[in-house]
Every structure is written in structure tokens, then in C-alpha cells.
Amino acid sequence: MNNKISVAVLGATGSVGQKFVELLADHPWFELTEVAASDKSVGKKYSEAVNWVMLSPIPEKIKDLVVRKCEPDLKSKLVFSALDASVAGEIETEFANKGYYVISNARNHRFDDDVPLIIPEVNSDHLEMIKKRSGGGAIITNPNCSTIGLALALKPIHDNFGIEAVNVVTMQAISGAGYPGISSMDIIDNVIPFISGEEEKIETEPLKLLGKHENSKINFANFKISAQCNRVAVIDGHTECVQIKLKKKVSADEIIDTWKNYSTLPQKLNLPSAPEHPIIYFCEEKYPQPKLHRNIGKGMAVAIGRLRECSLFDYKFVILSHNTIRGAAGGTILISELMKSQGYLDGIL
Ligand code: NAP
After folding, report:
1. 203: CA distance to ligand 1 center in Å?
2. What is the pLDDT of residues 203-249, one digit of tens each?
3. 173 Cα nearest atom in ligand 1
4. How far is the CA of 37 from the centre of ligand 1 (A)?
């Protein structure tokens, strides 16, 4: 017997679900004990239901777990959701109403008034807005995978200098479209200049994340973001080219220093999944690159480079973050570590 908290993953067979299985294999605080997915997988052993595409083998303890239905009769009261958005909204509500803590990667509940949208290094104080449902559970959300890299890069700039406007062009990896995702005929030798719903998420989610939690509500940050999103032939790692207009005149060195010195509650608490440095700035003009840097900080750090003056805005730079680690499973696990360390999971076994 150990005293780890038992967790379940909904959507455990998908792109993000597999990353949860991989990251939870040796977690010091959480033990993955239940996996759930769609009817086509239910009743099969996990190893038979999944088309495993992670580099490490399926953890021995998980291989033979029988895939459960996504119904709120699971033993684990802490549930990570990697469900497709077409079904996530309803299923997550059912779980929360039945007393489960659901931490979700899906878009459905991100703007609900009683649901915090959290990046632990950006707005850990927003956890205070968790309102337990009548059954004692709650929903907490992880932002969109491109939003996470962007919001982490913007947070220290916004706090120190004030942001007036942001323009961002993304180059997003194939794994961001789930498994099996886009057909090879569509993506090889190609760039697809459209990802459904993505631009809207990137233009709105950072404003909630950078907003202030006052009088039990979030006052959204007050600046405009314009986003253009592209799918590119990279397996993992979203790259974003960003232009920003600031409220204050500052030098490039001042911005780089705020990134380099950025350290927050998860670092102070030494949470198991927290990168030592959430932001890593590269001076080399060819960096960051997805092939070289997506796993930096075990995939939990955001790599930034090429900060330079912009002739239209004030500055421009490039961000890279791992979409299924920092942008999904790893980010969600970090939220749950923060919740545990802050007492939100007391009483959950
Ligand atoms: P995915 O590969 O398509 O996986 C979807 C999962 O949902 C599978 O396990 C699937 O189970 C399950 N599912 C589908 N329909 C279901 C139903 N009717 N009932 C129960 N389970 C059902 O998608 P993904 O890329 O992992 O994304 C999962 C979620 O995370 C999405 O909401 C996505 O927007 C979000 N997200 C993804 C990324 C990323 O980089 N991929 C990053 C951030 C957030 P079966 O295998 O049995 O069909």
C-alpha cells in the first residue's frame, strides 16, 4: 500500500491521454488506477484499446487495466480529462456534480464563471474561485496548448511594463490535432492555414489568465490579441511568432531580464512537475526550434528567443512550448500538484 492519491484519466487512449499515462508512471504523489474512453475502447485491456505512440513503452501497471466507460462511478475522486470537446462538456459536468474534482484539457468549461482557468506560474491565486458543486466536486481547466506558451511569455511583461496589444502567428504541431489527427496526404509537404476555433481561444484565454481575481470574479486583462494559426509538419511543439506593443518604453535587456528572473509559486514550492525555470531565453539567433528544444525542462519550460525591435509594434520574439506536455497533460498534473500543496485535495484518497 502507498499513500498516493488515486487518479483516473478520461480519454486515456488519445494523444493527450497517452501523455498522461506516460507522465503519471512514476509520479511521487499520484497513482493512475483507472482509464476511461469511448465505447469502442470500453471493456478492452488498455494495451489493446490504445494505438500507443509515445517513445517509452506502456507502463507495466497500466497495460492490463480494463478501459472503463466515462461515467461517474469511478473510485478515483481526482479525474484528469483528455476528452474530445464534442463530449467533454457534459461528461465533466456529470463528474463534478457527483463529487469528483475534474481537471480538464477541453475547451468547454474554460469561461464558466465558477471554473478557474489556470497556469500555475501565471495565476495560481485564481484557484480561489473554485466553487464546489452541490455534489461536492468542481471543474478546473487547463488553457489551450498555444495559449499556455503565449500567456507564460506575456505574464512577466504585462506585470512589469503593461501590454497594449499583441499579434501572434502560430505554427502548431500535428499531435495537437489528436490521434490519428490530420491525414499524411494533407500535412506532408504542407502548411494548413486554419485550425478550427483556435484563433478565438488564443485571442480570449490569455485575458482571463492575466486578469485579476477580485470580489469573487475575474476582471479580464484589457488589451487586444490578434491570432493567426497554422498547422505545420512538426510532430510535437508549437512555435509562435509574437509582436507586442507595450504601455511603457523599455529596453530589450529589461524584457529578457524579467523572463530570465521569472520564478513563481510552483518553483518556490518545488512541485514535482515544476520546471526550475519556467521561461528559458536563448540568445542564439536560430533558436528556439521544436526538434531541439521542445523537451526543455522535461517539456514543461517555455523557450523564447529572437527578441528584437519591431517596426510596427514595439518588440517581436519567438516562443516554443511542448503542446502535449506543458500545453496539456504536464500542465494539468502541475495544476493538481498545486491544488494538493494548497490543501484543495485534502480528504481525497
Ligand atoms: P484525441 O487524440 O482525439 O483523443 C480523444 C479521446 O477522447 C480518446 O481517448 C477517445 O477515446 C475519447 N473519446 C472520444 N469520444 C468519446 C466519447 N463519446 N465518450 C468517451 N470518450 C470519448 O484528442 P487529444 O488531442 O488527446 O485531445 C484531448 C482533449 O485535449 C481535447 O479536448 C483537445 O482539444 C485538448 N487538448 C489537446 C492538446 C494536444 O496537443 N493534442 C493540447 C491541449 C488540449 P477512444 O480512443 O476510445 O475513441
Report:
1. 23
2. 999 999 999 999 889 999 999 999 999 999 999 999 999 999 999 99
3. 40
4. 9
Homologous superfamily, domain 145-322: Dihydrodipicolinate Reductase; domain 2 (3.30.360.10)
Q: Active-site positions?
A: 145, 238
Q: Please give the backbone phi and psi of residue 94, each rounded to the nearest 5 degrees, phi first.
A: -60, -45
Does the pTM of the predicted model rise above 0.90?
A: yes
Question: Looking at ligand 1, which residue's alpha carbon is closest to its atom 39?
Answer: 176
Distance from the alpha carbon of residue 267 to the mean position of ligand 1, in angstroms = 30
Peptide bond into 116 cis (omega under 30): no
Classify residue 156 as exposed, middle or buried by CB count within 10 Å of its CB (0-12, 13-18, 19+). buried
CA nearest ligand 1 atom 38, residue: 176
| Ligand 1 surroundings by CB, under 6 angstroms | 11-17, 37-38, 40-41, 70, 82-85, 87-88, 105-106, 145, 175-176, 178-179, 323-324, 327-328
Domains of the chain, residue spans = 5-144+329-341, 145-322
| Domains 5-144+329-341 and 145-322 alike in fold | no
CATH 3.40.50.720 matches 5-144+329-341: yes
Q: Summarize the confidence of residues 135-159 as an average pLDDT.
A: 96
Chain centroid to CA 20: 12
In angstroms, rounded to a whole number, what is the distance separating the alpha carbons of residues 211 and 97? 27
How far apart CA 102 and CA 237 sit, in angstroms, is 25
